[in-house]
Design brief:
With about 325 residues, the chain is an alpha+beta fold. The protein has three domains: about 55 residues, Winged helix-like DNA-binding domain superfamily/Winged helix DNA-binding domain (Arc Repressor Mutant, subunit A, Orthogonal Bundle), CATH 1.10.10; about 210 residues, Bira Bifunctional Protein, Domain 2 (BirA Bifunctional Protein, domain 2, 2-Layer Sandwich), CATH 3.30.930.10; about 50 residues, SH3 type barrels (Roll), CATH 2.30.30. Helices cover about 30% and strands about 30% of the residues. The chain has ten helices and 14 strands.
Length: about 325
C-alpha cells in the first residue's frame, strides 16, 4: 500500500466498541483505565452503542462484551488478510466510526491515481442509501458499509454492467466463507430465498473525453435485530442477513478482504474484457431468470418473463410483443410470481 492517510481521531464510543470485540468480558474499570477516562464515560459509551442497535452482553462483576458474531472493523486486520498484489494497489484504507455515506465522502474527495483504489469503511451510516434514493439500515457491527474509489483514464464501454461484476465478486467472497444460497437480482441486489441480503450502488463523476472517477458502494446485512428488520420492512423490503446462513457470521474483516481480493483485479480488467468473461457465472446466480416480472422504466411498466442478460449487461424480458432490452439506471424490477 502507499503511505496511509493519518488515522482520524476516534470518538470514545468507537474505542470502546473495538475493545469489546475480542469475545471476552471487559470490566468498566479496566476499560476506563485503558482509555484514560472515567467509568461514567465508559458507561455512557456503552449506552450509546445500545441506542445504535449494537448487540451487547453485560454481566455483574464481569463487565461488557459484544454479543457472539459481532466484530469490529480494523485496518490492520483487513491488511493482514490481503495478498501483496492487492495491498500494493490500495492507495488508502480507512475505517471511520460514523459517516453520512461512505460513497458521498469518496465521491467528494480527490480520486486515487489510475490503477489504484481508495477504500473507506464506516461502522455506522446516518444517510446510507441505495438506488433510487432508498435508505439503508446499518447498525454498527451488524453490517458492512464499504466504498471503493477508482479512476479510469477514459469512460469504459458498458459501464452500467460493472455492478453485475461487483455482485459476482461479493457472491464469491461469501461462498469462500461458507455463506451459501446468495444470488443476484439484476442490476444490483444480493438476495436469498428469504429476502434482500445487500446491494451495490455505483456513482461516478466524469468530464467529456477525460478521466472517470467511479465510486462503488457495497452494503451487506450481517446481523439484523428485530428493530432493524422492522425498519427495513417499513421501507417496503424484506431483509435477510448473513447470520441466517452461517451462524456465527464470518468476521466482517474477512468478508471485506475477500471482496477486495476479487474486486480490484476485476476493476483493472473491466475496460479490456467487460462482462463477457463473467456471463456464465452470472447466469448461474441469476435470481430473476424464468420468473414473471414487472419492469418500470420512465413511468411505463413492461410485464413479461425474465430471460437473463446480454453481453452488455442489459436485462432481457420476453413479452407477447417480443424480447425487450433494459439497461440499468432508473429501472425498477419486481417479481410477480
Amino acid at each position: 500500500m502507499n503511505t496511509p492517510a493519518p488515522e482520524p481521531q476516534r470518538p470514545l464510543v468507537h474505542k470502546v466498541f473495538q475493545r469489546l470485540c475480542d469475545g471476552g468480558f471487559q470490566s468498566g474499570e479496566a476499560l476506563a483505565a485503558e482509555l484514560a477516562v472515567t467509568r461514567a464515560a465508559v458507561w455512557k459509551a456503552v449506552e450509546q452503542l445500545r441506542d445504535l442497535g449494537v448487540s451487547l452482553d453485560a454481566s455483574t462483576n464481569k463487565g461488557y462484551r459484544l454479543a457472539p458474531g459481532v466484530s469490529a472493523l480494523t485496518v490492520e486486520r483487513i491488511e493482514t488478510l490481503l495478498p501483496e498484489d492487492v495491498r500494493s494497489h490500495i492507495e488508502s484504507l480507512q475505517v471511520e466510526w460514523t459517516l453520512e455515506s461512505t460513497n458521498t465522502k469518496l465521491l467528494d474527495a480527490w480520486p486515487p491515481a489510475a490503477g489504484f483504489a481508495s477504500v473507506l469503511l464506516a461502522e455506522h451510516q446516518t444517510g446510507g442509501r441505495g438506488r433510487r434514493g432508498r435508505s439503508w439500515v446499518a447498525p454498527p457491527g451488524g453490517a458492512v458499509c464499504l466504498s471503493v474509489s477508482w479512476q479510469y483514464v477514459e469512460l469504459p464501454a458498458d459501464l452500467s454492467a460493472l455492478s453485475l461484476i461487483v455482485g459476482l465478486c461479493v457472491v464469491n467472497a461469501l461462498h469462500e466463507l461458507g455463506v451459501e444460497g446468495v444470488n443476484l437480482k439484476w442490476p444490483n441486489d444480493l438476495v436469498t430465498a428469504n429476502g434482500k441480503l445487500g446491494g451495490i450502488l455505483i456513482e461516478m463523476r466524469a468530464e467529456a473525453g477525460g478521466p472517470v472517477h467511479v465510486v462503488i458502494g457495497i452494503g451487506l446485512n450481517v446481523l439484523l435485530d428485530d428493530a432493524a428488520r422492522a425498519a427495513v420492512k417499513a421501507a417496503g423490503n424484506v431483509a435477510d442477513d448473513i447470520r441466517a446462513h452461517r451462524d456465527p457470521a464470518p468476521d466482517r474483516n474477512a468478508m471485506i478482504a475477500g471482496v477486495l481480493r476479487r474486486l480490484l483485479p476485476a476493476l483493472r480488467e473491466f475496460p479490456r474484457h467487460g462482462l463477457k468473461p463473467h456471463l456464465s457465472h452470472w447466469n448461474a446466480c441469476d435470481a430473476l431468470f424464468g420468473r414473471e416480472v414487472n419492469v418500470e422504466n420512465v413511468g411505463q411498466i413492461t410485464r413479461g418473463v425474465a430471460r437473463g442478460i446480454d453481453a452488455h449487461g442489459a436485462l432481457l424480458v420476453e413479452t407477447p410483443a417480443g424480447v425487450h432490452r433494459f439497461i440499468s439506471g432508473e429501472v425498477s424490477v419486481r417479481v410477480t410470481t
